[in-house]
Amino acid sequence: MSTKEKVSPELDLEVLEQEENKIVLYNDEVNTFDHVIDMLVAACDHTPLQAEQCSMIVHYKGKCSVKTGAYKDLEPRCSKLLEAGLTAEIQ
């Protein structure tokens, strides 16, 4: 007895497209760690520990992906980071 599995490629593609977008935060010489941490908590719903870890990665590596998801969810979050003086973009 054999069983055939139906696959819905449209659904899989839609899920992949939603998760491809990410906010990348870049290092700068202006903002303090506390300001970056506070903004990641406020704009990206990070925990304080997660925000601190991201800020350290940004400091030492020059950039860090801080949030992934659908573009329409990321756009206002990225705008909030930019308005706070941080350097970020959606990729």
TrEMBL record:
Signal peptide: none annotated. GO terms for biological process: protein catabolic process; proteolysis. The keyword Protease applies. The keyword Hydrolase applies. Residues 18-84 form the Adaptor protein ClpS core domain. It comes from the Bacteria. SUPFAM superfamilies: ClpS-like. Keywords: Hydrolase, Protease. GO terms for molecular function: peptidase activity. This is Clp protease ClpS.
